[in-house]
Amino acid sequence: MGQYQELCSLTTTGIKPRLLADAAQYLGQGHDQEPEPEPSRSFDTALLLAGMRDDDPLPLLCLRCRISHALEAWLCATHRANEERYGLELLAMASYALDDEGKLTLRIGPDELKPFAHTQLALLPKGMSTPFSAEILRSYDSALCGLPHWARLKIQAHNELKAYFRQHGLLLISDWALLRNSSPSRVRQACQEQLRTNDTVVFLSALHSRYGPLYDAAKRDYKNRTGKSSGWQPDPAFLRELAPDQDPFATTERLKAIAKAVRLLLTGSSNQSLDQAAEVGFEPVDPSSQANSDDDVGPSSGELKALVSDALQRAMDQLMPDVLAASGKNAELLRCLWAGWAEGLTNRPLAERCGTTCGTVSKKLRPTEHATIIATAAAQELNRHQAFASVSQSVEGAERLVNALRNHLLEPEREGDVAPLRRWIQQYLNQP
Amino acid sequence: MNTPSSQEPLDVMQMPQGAIELGELPLAFAHEDRLLAVAALKQAMDERNLDLPFGPTIEPEDTARLLSLNRFSVQLATTGITSDEVLVKRSFWEDSALAPQLLLAAAVDEENNVVFFPGVLTGEELLAQAKNADSDSAALVLNTACFKGGIDRLLILVQLLEPAALPRLALPADPITALQKTVVSVLDWLNGQLDESLAALGGGLVPVTAGATRSGVGLPPVEGALAMVSIPLGLADGSLVTGLTAQRCLERFDLSLIPIHPDGLYLRLAPALIGDLLPDGLTLIARQGEHVQSITSENSDNLDLNFPSSSELLAVSVAFGSSEPIELPLLQLPKS
Questions:
Q1: Which residues does the annotated region (Disordered) include (chain A) (predicted)?
Q2: How far apart are CA A184 and CA A204, in angstroms?
Q3: Model confidence pLDDT, tens digit, residues A65-121
Q4: Interstrand relation of B330-332 and B183-185 (parallel, antiparallel or unpaired)
């Protein structure tokens, strides 16, 4: 079996390839056990032309199989790299892209089926079609790039998949946006370190330098026409304007190579910072030590500690109830997460206890952010006290005080103690 | 030789910690990174139950306007969410009486409706960064890594500080304006030396080959070229720009200064891209004593002027419409 006759699709037991008899018969595979043609751009083009010429669903069925393999590879690679850290589920991801059932008809209305052929595809409105392979084929121009690459570019613009990734703390970034937002120095570094190609770094950097302004103009035009920010793809006119003396297909390949190099560069540095991520390393600074030091006048150390403690307590009383009060389906999860955090659980055990992912824990909890808000509110109150008057006069003073208050909230004063914010949450959640 | 990474390139990237996911927005917001950034700032304040005075309420998308937050003046500079650089308009920092007190960087992902604030710089911190930053007459280029503290730092400073605690500071005078008063000797180019005043415009010495002086299809090469200085120019929102800013423009062209044998200077203004035309109304002007030459483009693929050697200094400028012309430092040609 091969890529042109087996369709990767979603089953109850996972993603499974299955032989499509119609596709096999069209390719002449029958009972002869002849090897299927090797996947290639030329064979893809031949099938496409056959589909257009004869308005026959069968060549397109073979291409749909090809597309499904490309999508399956992309989904598996993305899942493999992110499953553990972000709790991605392969079947959930696949449900957005591998929705082709291998039928020879397209549903274009509640009760209307048409042949899944070139003429019908051309009549589909622009935008997301079902199955996803229909949209890929509808919009494909073989002069721009190969079909597997086109499938990847289209899945980068899949809005529902993007929303799924966002829920798990990830952003799906298109090649086009990535190229636009990469500085010349980053592109140079990426090409030098990650690329093995016949093109020189100087050549590719020059191509990239022309890309930005053209992209901005094309994107502005696209947004004006469609009202959308996502989904733009370069057309032959754009590619010829970018590189007039080059074949558009070759220009797309070069841009793809630059984008891949940049992603490799960013992936490497991102993994380093994740692997090296440690506790923030709060310094156990006593926030009362941030007060003006004047031994002759002003409150004593004990009085300052009481001032600080009272200000923090009032700030927590004012701000945290709203943070903890969630309604709807989030309420149970939020309560579970905060209760676990107050006990001292870290992200992974929290995720396991509350039946969610580490990505969701990071998004929902954000204790450092809330501690900063509380600390700022407390600092505003303390600012009114003479002992802390200098805080409002200097950036360093203000930041030092807020940092000290935040650290005090999140770290216990002594070994074995409970940090004030954790204690507050425990007491709040234990209320009848 | 660097070894390519063996890791797979990823189309998904971690959402920056503290990034703000925007809800449904009016259609017009999809068009403007700045509007998305302002919306994210407001959302951040709403989530923190902060009711701070915030403006402007009219045309907040106008990049020519500063933001006002709790009596503090804030410049907002946007870039892409994966970007490692942000362009900061210099014009706001020219007059210390009007300069903002804070510079807020916003990294915008318009395709995901997500905004991340890397952090904020005070005027003092910006001036320190500016010393080592790439720059031209229009903008500073800062690394996003130099912004620290996220949105929380902005909100801490505007809530805790008195406005007087953050002075308004101006950047040092544009080095290009200062250097244009100098005189550049063309002879230096023959020795491979380029004056700082031309380098500040983005100018560079280009090896002289027949191809190098033939900018554009069909243009004849400049016979007898001894050296060539090429200055990148561009049009940004109808204004002439040079250097790094020019390289980011859709309409780009190069001003070539070519000393020729036996003497004299050839000036050529041509599009940066082969096959392009110059924008109509672009004017190349040069004055040498009482002798003035001027030529304006109309369906032109290049503008050429030629001046003989003379004891008189040569003043060259490029003008477009009502925008500020680009003036080169005065050029001293070899005496004949």
A1: 283-302
A2: 10
A3: 999 999 999 999 999 988 888 889 999 999 999 999 999 999 888 888 889 999 999
A4: parallel
> What is d(CA B319, CA B298) in angstroms, rounded to the nearest whole number?
14
The two structure tokens encoding residue A223: 């947004």
Pinpoint the alpha helices (H) of chain B.
Answer: 33-47, 123-130, 150-160, 175-179, 187-190, 196-199, 243-247
Q: Which residues in chain A have their CB less than 8 angstroms from residue B254's CB?
A: none
Q: CA B270, CA B254: separation in Å to the nearest integer?
A: 6
Mark yes or no for CB contact B21/A166 under 8 Å: yes
- For A75, the closest chain B residue by CA position comes to B11
Contact A291, A392 (CB under 8 A): no
ipTM > 0.90 for the complex:
no
| d(C-alpha A203, C-alpha A184), whole Å | 12
Best mutation target, B82, B108, B113, to test chain A (most A CBs within 10 A):
B82
- The runs of H, that is alpha helices, within A128-235 are 132-139, 147-156, 159-167, 175-180, 184-194, 201-226
The tokens of A134 are what?
Answer: 């229909």
pLDDT 10s digits, A399-412: 999 999 999 999 98
CA nearest B251 in A: which residue?
A213
Cα–Cα distance between A377 and B219 in angstroms, integer? 68
Where are chain A's structural domains? Answer: 1-170, 173-277, 287-429
Domains defined for chain B, CATH in brackets: 20-165 (3.40.1350), 175-332 (no CATH)
- For residue B152, count other CB atoms closer than 10 A to its CB: 22
Q: Are strands A112-115 and B12-14 parallel, antiparallel or unpaired?
A: unpaired
